[in-house]
């Protein structure tokens, strides 16, 4: 279901992937610095979640400014929260690369607004979280992560040039939130692995994300 979500004087293009049965939980998903909501990995994850009973709303927000992307993400969260069509008990925020930075920022901001902490946001899924720029490991983008309290899942490639394995493990060990890292062996930032098809890698990611969601909320297993 295609929708346009009002954002300032513009609209954000978004698509709902709706399960057959009435969903209790949803995932809001956005893309990295390049691309849009039709990036193949997002389409694949959205279809997988919907087929397993989880509503997925993915949206496009162009712009390389994280604060702007964060604002857009917040708007989408509010939109879904107030939606009459889908009465959800809670949502998980998810993003790929820069989208996961925006998602982390939203989770931190909303958890710090006491009036807003109504438990609607259940957790955060970071796909290829860009912890640092390539070859610039000294500056870590970890400030939001260290302040988050809800459960966080990281899915990262062990050869991701923007997320050195030991550095992510170091940040995660300092996080107060319940957290889990799933490493995709030998995958780079784009989740490409020599000798494996994209579909094969996506299947691994999709299964991981869904089973983690299930561990964190009561989802019926299909």
Automatic annotation (TrEMBL):
Annotated InterPro entries: AB_hydrolase_fold, KANL3/Tex30_Abhydrolase, NSL3/Tex30
Highest taxon, organism lineage: Eukaryota
Record SUPFAM superfamilies: alpha/beta-Hydrolases (SSF53474)
Matching Pfam families: Abhydrolase_11 (PF20408)
Chain ranges of the KANL3/Tex30 alpha/beta hydrolase-like domain: 27-208
Gene3D superfamilies recorded: alpha/beta hydrolase (3.40.50.1820)
Protein name from the UniProt record: TEX30 protein
Organism placement in taxonomy: Eukaryota, Metazoa, Chordata, Craniata, Vertebrata
């Amino acid at each position: 279901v295609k929708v346009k979500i009002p954002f300032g004087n513009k609209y954000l293009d978004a698509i709902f992937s709706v399960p057959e049965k009435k969903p209790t939980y949803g995932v809001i998903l956005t893309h990295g610095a390049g691309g849009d909501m039709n990036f193949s990995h997002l389409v694949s994850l959205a279809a997988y979640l919907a087929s397993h009973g989880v509503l997925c709303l993915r949206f496009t927000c162009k712009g390389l400014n994280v604060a702007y992307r964060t604002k857009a993400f917040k708007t989408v969260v509010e939109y879904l929260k107030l939606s009459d069509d889908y009465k959800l008990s809670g949502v998980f925020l998810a993003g790929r690369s820069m989208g996961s930075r925006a998602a982390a920022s939203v989770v931190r901001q909303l958890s710090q607004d006491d009036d807003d902490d109504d438990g609607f946001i259940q957790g955060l899924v970071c796909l290829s979280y860009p912890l640092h720029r390539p070859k610039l490991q000294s500056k870590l983008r970890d400030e939001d992560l260290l302040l988050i309290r809800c459960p966080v899942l990281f899915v990262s490639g062990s050869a991701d040039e923007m997320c050195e394995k030991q550095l992510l493990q170091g940040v995660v060990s300092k996080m107060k939130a319940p957290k889990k890292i799933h490493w995709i062996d030998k995958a780079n930032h784009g989740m490409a692995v020599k000798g494996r098809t994209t579909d094969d890698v996506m299947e691994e990611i999709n299964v991981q994300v869904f089973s983690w969601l299930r561990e964190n909320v009561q989802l019926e297993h299909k």
